[in-house]
Amino acid sequence: MSQDYRLPYKDDLGFCNIIFSAIGGEGANMAAKLLFKLGVEMFDLDGGYDAKYGSEKKGTPTDVSVRFCDYGTPVRSAGPTTQPHFLVAFREFLIRPLSLNRGLQANATVIVNSTKSPEEVRDILQLNSGTVICLDATDIAAKTHSRLNMPMMAMLCYELKFDPEKVKEKVAKQWPKVAQANLAAFDAAVAQSKRATFKDDGKYPLVSFTEHRDERIGYLNMPEGGAIDATRFSTIGKNNRLSGTGFFPKFEQASCITCGMCMTVCSDPGSLKWVDGKMTGIDENYCKGCMRCVAICPSHKKGKALQFPCPEAEALTTGKKV
Ligand code: SF4
Ligand code: SF4
């Protein structure tokens, strides 16, 4: 435990508030849980943790709230924060539809996965004041064979001034099989980030937190299908690759007998491209690489239409040794 650690922000109740915004399956929840564990076990902090779960299958937005306070601070409120000091946005394209500037405190720190400049992101977010840090976490994750959550979490830990060696030790212990990839992503994040700090120059006001909906949801006005509101956000047309394993099945059209079995097991049926009643291939933007379709695709005299692309993909999804 560290007696020397000081939180960079505190609200009136003594909390430093953090919001992670991501799409289901991108590991925001895992990263936030690990962050919370780190804060409690290694930096002598206390606090609260709340997660909303987004559907990985449907690519639904999710958010996770972490509230840190010094150990011994009386906890006088519960639930997710509505006044973040830190916003960690895994996807820049979520900022507008989800109005992620709602509730952000003055002089907040915003970490965004984006290839844009901090100035451009400030305008997208309509940030009153604070520091915007941009990093191309998608590229870092792809190049290091890690997940999106690693570079994003690395950047947040850096801004929280958590001892990086302690953080890396915990990350390596938590996911030993991918420790090398995760640590590479960790190091690349801080090195490749761009930042700018903005004063309250009158360009954008502080925006208080309000729920998206002005009216209560009931059976008369709930969205079709009940649970997923696609009117504000949809993953259609967007690259969702990083929520998968990074491997995609190999498809041999000549061997396909159009049995449709792959459709019955697919984690995200949008990944299977069917045209005029025929299976034509895999959409890598949506495929999670779970290989369930490979497992169920029948072998017959023409062969097997869906196959493992490489021994590593087979090892990852079946546990078989390479
Ligand atoms: S690997 Fe197959 S079953 Fe899994 S998401 Fe991709 S297409 Fe669907
Ligand atoms: S399970 Fe295999 S053979 Fe059957 S439709 Fe899918 S790809 Fe074709």
SSE order and pairing:
Elements: E1 15-23, H1 28-42, E2 45-51, E3 61-70, E4 86-89, E5 108-113, H2 118-125, E6 130-135, H3 137-144, H4 149-160, H5 164-174, H6 179-191, E7 194-198, E8 250-251, H7 261-265, E9 272-275, E10 278-282, H8 292-296, E11 306-307, H9 311-318
Parallel strand pairs: 1-4, 4-5, 5-6
Antiparallel strand pairs: 1-3, 2-3, 6-7, 8-11, 9-10
The structure holds iron/sulfur cluster (2 copies).
One iron/sulfur cluster binds at residues 249, 265-268, 271-272, 282, 287-293.
Q: What keywords describe this structure?
A:
Pyruvate-ferredoxin Oxidoreductase, domain 3; Alpha-Beta Plaits; 7-stranded mixed beta sheet; two-stranded antiparallel ribbon; 9 helices; 11 strands; 19% strand; binds iron/sulfur cluster
What does this structure look like?
This protein is an alpha/beta fold and 322 residues long. It has 2 domains: 184 residues, Pyruvate-ferredoxin oxidoreductase, PFOR, domain III (Pyruvate-ferredoxin Oxidoreductase, domain 3, 3-Layer(aba) Sandwich), CATH 3.40.920; 75 residues, Alpha-Beta Plaits, CATH 3.30.70. 26% of the residues lie in helices and 19% in strands. The strands form 3 sheets. A 7-stranded mixed beta sheet has the order 2-3-1-4-5-6-7, sandwiched between helices. Strands 8-11 form a two-stranded antiparallel ribbon. Helix 3 packs antiparallel against helix 6 and helix 4 crosses helix 6. The protein is globular, with a radius of gyration of 22 Å. The two termini are 40 Å apart. Bound molecules: iron/sulfur cluster (2 copies). The site of one iron/sulfur cluster has 15 residues, from helix 8.
